[in-house]
Specification:
three-stranded antiparallel sheet; 3 domains; about 400 residues; Arc Repressor Mutant, subunit A; Rossmann fold; globular
């Protein structure tokens, strides 16, 4: 006879995945549904009626067969889907305001329940910064601290390598079967073998610019604290630090030379009250003072009567759904081509590209980021950009 408890857990698993893949719902909408209806099965049953009651468009919920097919594909790829609310789902991540409805993982899942520390920093890191990241990560891993990072170039990669023999988690912006950056292919597979790969994106999903801030909230959410080693004033590493503060986690930073632009962000964090550390011993001393999960009790999604589905005009880069990538694909391609025509192997300032294209600097920076991911351009530390190939 089948175990009723296992049947119930499997049903919750499938219901979570169906909600997870419902266009427009997103992590915040999912969290509000769970807060209102208690569990994924109840939320799934109530969602169509709730949408009618609130005069919202009927959600395009994937079928049970589609969810089961995806779960089978995940298992075939050697991965596992961890549903929100299950025992395997990381406790710290479940407490943030917009937890992923589910995570696809590959590797040692027990690392999710260790003392985790995020180490992030510049992609164009200095040799000294990468050496410090590797040494600090190695020293912490030897003391049973699991290192969490984003598998990016520079500091991220150095931190993963330092902790690889002991414990490290890589959080990806795309699906686990998409390797980015390409030069980290060997490291990607080594982490899958000896550590853990994590993503909230489906298998086959490619990373876009808006996926990286969403990934960063997972990096900080999995960790009791975040350590920043080299970061410019406007960088993804500072986004991770901001998420850590919003999640009521501690932030640490290594000081750097005021002459190095890569130290501007870390020095600013220190001025704003981040903990100054210089080595693994400093980090361990601070971790010893922290609670196992340093989390505020007033979770923002529990009571606020916020909209379930986020209107397109109100979305930010941190709340876009995958549907937005599809809807804007044609326009994005046209914009990207127009930018490429303005670029050459000669470095040009990004604000000059914005002037020539008649677009805002923020819009141009977003498109350049996507072009850089595609290997078509390179954004230089000086604020200039060149076309490759």
């Amino acid at each position: 006879m089948s175990d009723p408890k296992r049947i119930a857990e499997a049903s919750q698993h499938v219901a979570t995945l169906r909600l997870d893949r419902t266009p427009g719902l997103g992590p915040r909408g999912f969290a509000r549904l769970i807060a209102r209806f208690g569990d994924a099965c109840s939320a799934l049953d109530a969602l169509p009626g709730y949408a009618r009651q609130k005069r919202l468009p009927q959600p395009d919920i994937p079928s049970e067969t589609q969810a089961l097919d995806e779960l089978a594909a995940i298992e075939k790829a050697g991965c596992t889907y961890l549903a929100f609310g299950s025992a395997a789902y990381p406790a710290g991540l479940s407490q943030i305001s917009d937890p992923p409805p589910g995570l696809i993982v590959r590797g040692d899942q027990t690392l999710l329940h260790r003392t985790n520390l995020a180490i992030v920093g510049a992609r164009n890191a200095s040799a000294a910064g990468m050496r410090l990241a590797r040494e600090i990560a190695s020293g912490l891993a030897e003391q049973d601290v699991c290192i969490v990072s984003g598998l990016a170039r520079g500091i991220d990669g150095a931190a993963h390598r330092g902790a690889l023999e002991a414990a490290t988690i890589a959080v990806l912006a795309g699906g686990l079967d998409h390797i980015y950056p390409p030069e980290h292919e060997a490291l990607h597979y080594e982490i899958a073998e000896h550590g853990l790969l994590v993503s909230e994106r489906p298998l086959g999903a490619l990373p876009t610019a808006r996926c990286f801030p969403r990934r960063n909230r997972i990096i900080s959410g999995l960790s009791v604290a975040t350590l920043v080693i080299e970061a410019a004033l406007r960088s993804g590493s500072l986004i991770t630090a901001r998420y850590a503060l919003e999640q009521n986690r501690d932030v640490m930073a290594l000081p750097g030379s005021p002459l190095d632009p890569r130290a501007k962000g870390t020095n600013q964090l220190l001025r704003d009250g981040a903990h100054l550390v210089e080595n693994a011993e400093d980090v361990l001393a601070l971790l010893a003072q922290l609670q196992p999960l340093h989390i505020r009790p007033d979770r923002t999604h529990d009571h606020a009567p916020l909209p379930l589905f986020i209107p397109e005009a109100e979305e930010t880069d941190e709340t876009h759904s995958d549907a937005d990538d599809i809807d804007g694909q044609a326009e994005s391609c046209a914009q990207a081509n127009s930018l490429l025509e303005l670029l050459s192997p000669t470095p040009v300032a990004i604000d000059e590209v914005a002037r020539q294209s008649g677009r805002t600097i923020a819009s141009v920076q977003g498109e350049l980021f996507e072009l850089e991911l595609a290997g078509l351009v390179e954004c230089l530390p000086s604020g200039r950009v060149i076309r490759l190939g």
